What we know:
The complex is a heterodimer. Chain A is built from ten helices and 32 strands. Chain A has three domains: 7-201; 255-398, no CATH class; 419-500, Immunoglobulin-like (Sandwich), CATH 2.60.40. Helix content of chain A is 24%, strand content 33%. Chain A is globular. Chain B is mainly beta. Chain B folds into three domains: 13-73, no CATH class; 80-228, no CATH class; 230-406. In chain B, the strands form six sheets. In chain B, strands 12-14-17-20-23-26-29-32 form an eight-stranded parallel beta sheet, with no helix packed on it. A seven-stranded parallel beta sheet of chain B has the order 13-16-19-22-25-28-31, with no helix packed on it. In chain B, strands 4, 5, 6, 8, 9 and 10 form a six-stranded antiparallel beta sheet that branches. The longest helix of chain B is centred in the first third of the chain and has 18 residues, at 13-30. Classes of the chains: A alpha/beta, B mainly beta. At the A-B interface, strand 1, strand 2, strand 3 and helix 10 of A face strand 24, strand 30, strand 31 and strand 32 of B.
Amino acid sequence: MLNLLAFNNAVYLEYCTSNDLNVLDNNIEDAVNGIVDIGSWSYIARNTLTGLSDSGCGITLDDYSGIVKHNVVTNYKSSVFSLLSAPYLYKNSFQLASDVNLDFESYSTPLLQPIESGVLKYWYGGDNIINISDDGVGVNLLEDSYPLLKDGYNKFYLNAADYFISGEVPEEFEDSIEVRNNYWSTTLTSGKFNISNTTVKYNPTEDGSLGNRPHNTTILMSIGFGLWDTINIHDAGDNSSPDLFLTASNKLIDGNYSEAIEDFKDIVEQKDSNFTNLSLKKIFHCYERSNFLNSNFSEAKSFFTGIFLDSNYNEISRSLANDLNLKVMLHNSEYTLVKEKYSSLYLNNTSNSLGFHALINKTILDNLSIVDTTDNLSSSAEFGDLNDHKKTMFALLNSNSVLNNRSEINTSALVKDYKLEQNYPNPFNPTTYIYYELPVSGMVSLKVYDLLGREMLSIVNEVKDAGKYKVAFDGSNFASGVYFYRIFSQNFVQTKRMVLIK
Amino acid sequence: MHSNGYATYVSGTSFAAANVTGVVSIMQSFKTIEREDIEGILKISVDDKGASGWDSLYGHGRLNAEKAINYLRGPYVLSKYPTPGNTISGGDLGDPNYTYLNAVIVSGSPNDGERWLRLSEVHKTINYSLPAGHSLISVWGRGAGDASSGPITGWDNDFSAYYISQRHYTPTPFCEVVPGSLTSTSFTLRTYIYHFYNGNPFFGGELIGIYPSTVSNVTNWKYTLLTKNNRMKFYTQSDYMGNKTLTFNKDTVFVADDEVSDFYVRDSTKIVMADSSILELPDNYTLHFVGKTTSLKLSPHSKIRLGENSKIVFDSSAKLIMNYATLTSKDSTKSWGGLFFKNTSQDTISNSKIINSKGGINFIDKIGTHTVIKDNEFINKTNEVLDGIYAYNSEKILIRGNHFYAQSTGI
């Protein structure tokens, strides 16, 4: 039988700088994960990514704030998985993800709408197609993530009795989430949104139409290699000065980084703008693109540290600023210190997405930077270790709930390794099934924990023979929310997450 | 050349002979070779003129000195063989196919009288096999010999007292490939034995001598195979140090020596793999390119075949340029280690196939000039799961138009 599973990660970028880093026009098939960008902010455009069905992730983003446009992502478990990222998503087609189509976790603020200023519309984001398969969810929001969707003219197609958007929004946005002027394939009712702590603002008279995405001019943005990105603009003729975020964004495009930094800082100081968090990301972007203004790390560090320590800022801004400060420190070769900070961040968040983000970054630094003595990252990146590192990272990324190891494609009848599969269905109500595999017989413990790590239920606690197992978990007596299940057997320990939605 | 200093066009066998002599002396300065080898090479080193093949005006054709000399060096190899045994294909008295009778009258003392000549053709079929990776260019005989392994020494001793004495014989009697006998596995050599009679043998003439030996004594044959080594050894380490350019010949397979596991190309050495050349690396082997202006260029249709866990590493600004080329495993269902770039710049991998690379393509600390990975195919024909493109702490990389997919080995 043809083994279609060909690649772990087709394109995997780690701690690269956004300086002319482009992933364009690729056709990626038979890969578990299509494109993985960890802190690299690559320009991802016009790629065709076709997944292996019910596993893996098309585009995985951690600490990303670049542009993702015109991609066609089909047949993954999730089209996009985002941690602490603020991608600009424009004119992508996210098709038939078997689980959550767009999964935004841990302080992610994706832009799925144009940047508007009066009658000016800059189509940095929006106009995406989000096609939701049976039992799937269009957009999932977890742990203080908040999408900018208003006037985005995104098209959501829903085939079954599931949700366009589910999850929860940050406390700071609890009053409402704006989703006006997008296209919804079924008559819009509040029941199509399953956001636990807010009111969804939609406008039935405007929503539900395919809408109009006008543009009458463009600007060009150099992406290096003699290539240019075109950004569509609709200018209705207003001569008043554009809003600051737009002005600052244009300065960034023009390479006028120091002025852009000042403008973005002004937006951050306003504290309550929808663009506060995006601006924080962009400030880092400007520093990085300008090579830290001749190594002016201290200015960047003191700015981000200032936000982190200022209790007037909300938790999202402070967490983002803290994380960006760590990235500045990485540029300044303070690896040992950053590693310690990610370690403690992980230890304080072992069971949530922020912890997962910290674990990803801690693992990279564990594997690639030595470096208690020299802090010399380059010399540590030995090739022998590199394959091990990639293997570790792939396993780590796949241990996340949205990613899945592909038992369906494994044609071997023998169980060779321990395995804890993602539960199915997920999210679920009230019953789900958990699959696991044992290569040898032994004591097995499978327990369910809540977000705070409290043991809620012991599902298995006995000696089992080698083989494949399926157990049911009945959540009837539990509240809606995120739960973890963890398996222990011999030296094997693995934890996965499941979402109970009632 | 005319005596007045002007060149004059001259032609003819005697003028050609001077040219041939020149070429032969150049050939002999290259290598100590036997007369028969020189002749064998000259015959195939001509540009055919006039009628196809041999003709009376141009003979074999016009000698191409460059061609002749090239046959004396890599990738061409002269392999000389002796082989024992023979087959008498004809020449028995009365055999119409191989018996030619002529009468000659010899006058004067001491052998006055009538002499008759009978010719016997002696064959030897040689089964040959070429060294791995070689192809046959030509084959020729270098003489036949007697059982003592030397050349045939002349008259059978019993008849040595006769008129045609030993001192007249060439030390290595002629043998040649029977026209039309060459196949991919064998060819036939032949030589002739002359029997002399003092009268018509059909009417009582007595056998008085045999030249150059008896048929049964023709037990040793010598021949030369001219082959082209399509698998050149990947030279020695010292060839790859120092500012030089090494070109891997077209249509030639270069094989790395598996006695070492790490091979370094450095000090501005540039390797150019010509169109359709192939480099083969053994298992667990690492080919390193180190230093600025050290480079590997793969021309279109060139290919590197790597053994399991074998890697190519570019370090400290060493550069790879490949276009319409292929990196693949030696065994189509197994993987190889991967391609690694550390502190490199301006690499170009375009329109190429990267097949079965376990570790994919990796960039570490690639800062500075632009690198392009464009319009390549990343193909997995193995049952393993491979890595794709990985970059760490790098910038200015264009990953564009690449196609990643699995392919059944059955296709």
